[in-house]
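During the no-cost extension, the postdoctoral fellow (Dr. R.K.) reprocessed legacy sequence entries with the updated structure-token encoder. One reprocessed record is reproduced below for audit purposes.
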Amino acid sequence: MVSASATSAAASPIRLGMVGGGQGAFIGAVHRMAARLDGHYMLVAGALSSDPERARASAAELGLDPERSYGSFEEMAKEEAARADGIEAVSIVTPNHMHYPAAKAFLEAGINVICDKPLTSSLDDAKALVEAVKQSGKFFVLTHNYSGYPMIRQARQMVRDGALGDIILVQAEYPQDWLAEPIEETGQKQASWRTDPARSGTGGAIGDIGTHAYQLVTFVTGLKAESVAADLDSFGPGRRLDDNAHVLMRFAEGADGRRAKGVLWASQVAPGNENGLKLRVYGTKGGLEWVQADPNYLGYTPLGEPKRLITRAGAGANEAAAAVTRIPSGHPEGYLEAFATLYTEAAGALRAIRDSGKPPQDLLLPTVEDGLDGMRFIQGCVNSSRADAAWMRLEAL
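Re-encoded structure tokens follow.
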């Protein structure tokens, strides 16, 4: 495993490019901060907007060489691949519908890819991208950033160590309220593309934040949903994509014959919720609870015993949590640091590729296959809802 401090920042930085993330974008700035936090990357090139003028202005704000500010990702992939000092990896932070064509172009140019979630805007594109990664032999990371939190790494290790016994129940929720009013009609950039099927894909809230909740479930428990029954709603007047999702999940049958069950709720129209991601995992020997708004704590209740509170960098924190902890206990460590953990672990892998041509085998980074699983989850939920919440088997998609 590549820890947050294992790779010296004094080593030659990873030459990074970015597609998307120009003026007015939210997630691009987050990716840039995450890449800078531990000092492992240098942003040297970008196709920061589909509007060439905005791309140039955005590049100037970031101090990029004008010669390495490109008008399209196709031009950028071709030109950077031809340079002796070309980028080693590209960060793709566009709306969903551009993930596949941009990633494919850079993979075919021999450039490693770090891509924002969800993997693509359609299941067919996701399957094609999995093949493109295999054909290229390049390194690919999907930035499900919540999997980088120390207490999520703690929870994952505890499940694998058997502290909870056999997992039987999982509850995940991710409520927000920012789309409670039809702000997409005002031209608000983030709302406009996230509520547009042509740019977001078939899923609204289920694709935007539901996939985060589902990925946490799979990352912590090691389970993947075999089938889902979903009820998706669009409460915003005239809204074409779901803004609220209730999902039942059935997981694979365990060795003891029991089948774990799960419930997932994702909403962007729940007043009073800003970013309410929560995860609860229950097994035959105990339960865990984690709340993203207070991420330095993990609730742990062994069956028949009082509830315990495990703190990041405190008593009871395990090696998995310590490996991605930067600062002492009592000092909040949160969203940007978790995001940076993925970038830092990716930097360790990219440096290993420099040295030996291969990444380490024990990475916890989300892969293209994880992204495909997430896209099957989205499509399964959409299909189920269209069939009046009928059960849908994901492996059949």
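Confidence is low (pLDDT under 50) at residues 1-10. The two ends are 33 Å apart (CA to CA). The remaining legacy entries will be reprocessed before the final report is submitted.
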